[in-house]
Design brief:
The chain is α/β, with parallel strands linked by helices. It is built from 12 helices and 21 strands. Helix 2 packs parallel to helix 9 and helix 5 crosses helix 6. It binds pyridoxal-5'-phosphate and lysine. Homodimer.
């Protein structure tokens, strides 16, 4: 359930008609619902219950300043993967002391910036990174809080491009090397070991791999304690999937409660979760207008004004996202269409073989576009990127203007 619903045949985002947003801001346009974001965040936070915990929203899923600000106001933590994401969290009012910094390739400049801002911890992915963080912290004469990202080697059973917890992936430190890497960290003077983390993949639709990964980490936590290394938190990453089509992922409440249950009796160990998609995906839609209907020899094409540069998931992962009409009233015949964009690539489609009744000028909405939508948008084909609108009850707030064509093309210029 989300806050995008039909009323009298018109699609609404909370109390704002989606057609009004399109009229005011042109298409394509991303539309987010504040109430949905809040409800999803609370689903995780409430379900963990009384066990000490922190929900660190994964900024990469949607780093829109309005979205970050909604979550910051709830007291959310944040999982970041770059200095740029940290800057956005701070600009949106987020607390750096609730930020965990993930990623395999943190630069010295990013580490310095994060230390200066006083983040909660670095999720470290290699011994080389430990040495780099230690050196930057020594330079600043501080101790850097670190956790090691352990690769628990569980099969997340998701798309190979977004599975991260297998031995073959570039992420994390192998389970077999975990103890020695913690021991190495303990010898580095400017590091403070505070936690352990993992992240096994994205768009997971089963609970078992998460629980399996947590159990493997807990065994390691106990082995470390035997060696005198005591941790303050355990971060199980993100990755909970959403229903795009007919997937049936566990509800965030069931997921968070199952993990919290596994932590019973370990109250000294704060549980950190890093959900991205499960908070943002169904809090957003992308609205596009039909430009032309084209009859191919084998197919009908609905050519729309959004393209793979605006939403790349279908092209990149063959991802399926529902495409619906913004206004249900139509005289157009129901037919099967490929919904395609104007970009010069065969892979430029938003959906294939979709049964729709559409005519030029009609508005369509791509559902579940709040996560990995705008953040993965580009200017490919020198196209503008869409505006982003956050709806808050009856208000539409422009959080990001559509790029002006002039920003991309400065008009006349002369060669030097
Ligand atoms: C380290 C880390 N944490 C959290 C996430 C968020 O994942 P999701 O959006 O699937 O919840 C990701 C992305 O997969 C990630 O790499
Ligand atoms: N970008 C991916 C998810 C990647 C998760 C990042 N670790 C998607 O659209 O599904």
């Amino acid at each position: 359930m989300d806050h995008f619903e039909y009323r009298d045949g018109h699609l609404y985002a909370e109390d704002v008609a989606v057609a009004d947003i399109a009229a005011a801001h042109q298409t394509p346009v991303y539309v987010y619902s504040r109430a949905t974001l809040e409800r999803h965040w609370h689903a995780f936070d409430d379900a963990v219950g009384t066990h000490p915990h922190l929900i660190c929203y994964a900024v990469k899923a949607n780093s829109n300043l309005g979205v970050l600000s909604v979550l910051a106001k709830l007291g959310s933590g944040f999982d970041i993967v770059s200095g740029g994401e940290l800057a956005r969290v701070i600009e949106a009012g987020g607390d750096p002391a609730r930020v965990v910094f993930s990623g395999v390739g943190k630069t010295s400049a990013e580490i310095r910036y994060a230390l200066e801002q006083g983040i909660l911890c670095f999720n470290v992915e290699s011994p080389a990174e430990l040495h780099r963080i230690n050196a930057v912290a020594a330079d600043l004469n501080v101790k850097a809080p670190i956790s090691l990202r352990i690769n628990p080697d569980v099969d997340a059973k998701t798309h190979p491009y977004i599975s991260t917890g297998l031995k073959a992936n570039k992420f994390g430190i192998a389970r077999e090397q975990a103890l020695q890497t913690y021991e190495l960290a303990a010898t580095l003077e400017h590091l403070n070991i505070v936690g352990m983390d993992c992240h096994i993949g994205s768009q997971l639709t089963e609970l078992a791999p998460f629980v399996d990964a947590l159990d493997r980490l807990l065994t390691l936590v106990d082995e470390l304690a035997d060696k005198g290394i005591h941790l303050q938190h355990l971060d199980v990453g993100g990755g909970l999937g959403v229903p795009y089509q007919d997937e049936t992922p566990p509800h965030p409440k069931a997921y968070a409660a199952a993990l919290a249950e596994r932590m019973a009796g370990r109250e000294a160990l704060t549980l950190i979760l890093e959900p991205g998609r499960a908070i943002a995906a169904n809090a957003g839609i992308m609205v596009t207008q039909v430009e032309f209907i084209k009859e191919g020899e084998d197919k009908h094409f609905a050519i729309v004004d959004a393209a793979m540069n605006d939403l790349i998931r279908p092209a990149l992962y063959s991802a399926w996202q529902n495409i619906i009409r913004v206004d249900t009233h139509t005289q157009a015949p129901l037919r099967v269409y490929d919904v395609v964009g104007p970009i010069c690539e065969t892979g430029d489609f938003l959906g294939r073989d979709r049964e729709l009744a559409v005519a030029p000028g009609d508005l369509l909405a791509v559902r579940s576009a709040g996560a990995y939508g705008f953040v993965m948008a580009s200017n490919y084909n020198s196209r503008c990127r869409p505006a982003e609108i956050l709806v808050d009850k009856a208000q539409m707030r422009v959080v990001r203007e559509r790029e002006n064509q002039k920003d991309l093309w400065k008009g006349e210029y002369k060669l030097p």
